[in-house]
Amino acid sequence: MDFTLDSEQTALRDAVRGLLSKSYDSTETRREITKTDPGFSEKTWTQLAELGALGLPFAEEDGGFGAGPVEVSIVAEEIGRVLAPEPYLETILAGGLVADLGSAEQRADVIGRVAEGALVLSLAHHDIGDAVVATASGDTWTLSGVKEPVLHGARADLLVVTARTDAGVGVFLVDPSADGVERTGYRTHDGGRAARVAFDGAAATPLGDPTADASDAVALAKARGQIALGHEAVGAMDVALRTTTEYLKTRKQFGVPLNTFQALTFRAADLYVSAELARSTVTWATLVLQDEPERAVEAASRAKMQVSRAGRHIGQEAIQLHGGIGMTAEYSVGHYTSRLTAIDHTLGDGSEHLARLASTVTDHGVVDPIG
Amino acid sequence: MKLRLSEEDAAFREEMRTFFTTQVPQSIRDTVAARRELTKDQIVETQQILNAAGLAVPNWPVEWGGKDWTPLQRHIWHEEMQLASVPAPLAFNASMVGPVIAAFGSQEVKERFLPATANLDIWWSQGFSEPDAGSDLASLRTVARREGDEYVVNGQKTWTTLGQYGDWIFTLVRTDPDAPKKQQGISFLLIDMTSPGLTVRPIELIDGGHEVNEVFFEDVRVPAENLVGEENRGWDYAKFLLGNERVGVAPVGSTKRWLAAAKELAGDRIAGDPVLATRVAGLENELLALELTALRVVAHSADGKPHPASSVLKLRGTELQQAVTELYVDLAGPLSLASGAGDGSGVPDWARVSTPQYLNFRKASIYGGSNEVQRQIIAKTILGL
Predict the structure, then answer these.
(1) Same domain, B148 and B189
(2) Catalytic residues of B
(3) CA of A135: how far to CAs of A140, A172, A204, A253, B172, in Å?
(4) pLDDT tens across A96-106, in order?
């Protein structure tokens, strides 16, 4: 058992941190970038690609760099520290499905370009109303229905879409400029981008075998996304907590710094407890994904639930302990809370994961994290 | 980074598991599993079995019976012991006075006390807290006045856990009342509890049990050779001891076992009651997070420095321990009122003991450095507030 980064991983962390802290050197810079479409910096995206960050999750023969979940987590955590709005999660989610389900040709076509930063992917998986349905006519497939919200759906160069098939769930590649695809993009509360994507007989290419149920692959892709999001949240929580701590030390009220009030320092201590417990659980889930992927879906649920609780606790208290300044868009801490709230509600919130864990609570005696 | 135990550690875990589940009498383990009170004899018998196998005091220096284990191995030893419902070696002996004597005692004091302490031939009590010195321990007032080759001790200690069984008591006493700071002028003194002038008086607690005591000293004469280390340096030794005490105060293993047992007792109720199911699942997740934090701490404390997150363990560990005792009371529902029922009662044992245990475990967030003290430590030393 080992929870430390090796020297290569530390170097990766330092490189990503160096790049992102330049790209997002202040709340103001981030606000400028998220104000205009596509809501992120194309330049930073290219730089992340040049640094190798986008190819990390994928096999070398597909055009990736053959790294593992730990490396992905390192990048995600750095993204969380500065609230970088680049579509890294989409690369993990949609790119992961292409890598898992795609044919050799599909992988060769898509993964290499993703790794180079030349292709932004988006996973359209959230149905609003009836599920999107895939229909076959001979070898030709078309999709109908609506997905929303599709993160970075308006900017995406290629959509990876989940749809109902006779076999269960199928996954399809859709060119968003094709006939029958209509995208309506908008801003999310955390400065990100999402879209309503309507399919009306849109041409779609099955990813892998359309006669097989891809539910398990989708669940695993989501687990990978949940774990990466967990690390993003841990990075954000760490900065939110440190920002709050600094504020308590410097801000004076009644003639003394706030940290002379024990009621406030005790609340900060509780935030630390929440942050550490979340970090432990998310790190564990990353290692489960690395060593025992067959247990990753459950581990991701556990991590996401812990992140939900900690993110709410830290986000809410970070604003409260700052007082009025925490409410302002000029100041960073509210943006962290907004992002933590968005993370909570992406890929299943705390209640959903708790309900899932509760439904299996009688299947085991004790939870043994190391098997 | 890797999750799995190394082959060596996995084998070690198996070895511990086998030992604890085969060498400690089933009747003792059943008592622990049923959450009934252990007798003194059961505690002594268990520690002697462990000590004979070299497993009672692994945290001590090797020459005094310790093991050259990694922090992770110590953690595994402790967890497996709890999961197997084996009573841990008496903390006063194994985690408190033993390490202090081993680190600071003279050769004579070590030879005289350490083997007997490891084997629980001496049952130690702790004499730190006083009526006006709880979390503010340095305010203690019990005085030891030097007279020739003896100290004459006067004062009162309180919250002396299991003091009714104690053979000896390790105390903090004030030897220099004029020291400029209250932390100075305190010494660490070992006192035979059969000494004339020493009396132990039970304190009845809200659970109806007798677990803690007051200890009074009236002109108790203690040979000067019973001093540990140097006179007036006792505060340093106490800090060393309290640092050790915090290790292992997050009883993840036993809390997990309790929670698993609660699920068994609840049986089909959990499946039919979503509120109960989410409560149990939530507790499981919090315990998992705590266990993983404990693993992070042990995996990273190899260089001897305590991991900053270790204060989280006491704070959260006792909160969760208390939450599980609360779950038992709620599972028992109206049956939890039957704590005084006799053998003819139809109320099962676990339900009868649920409320006394719930009340008893209110102590967990108070002892070993109250959880407010832990928050203070986190705020000050980790967050710099």
Answers:
(1) yes
(2) 245
(3) 8, 11, 9, 65, 81
(4) 999 999 999 99
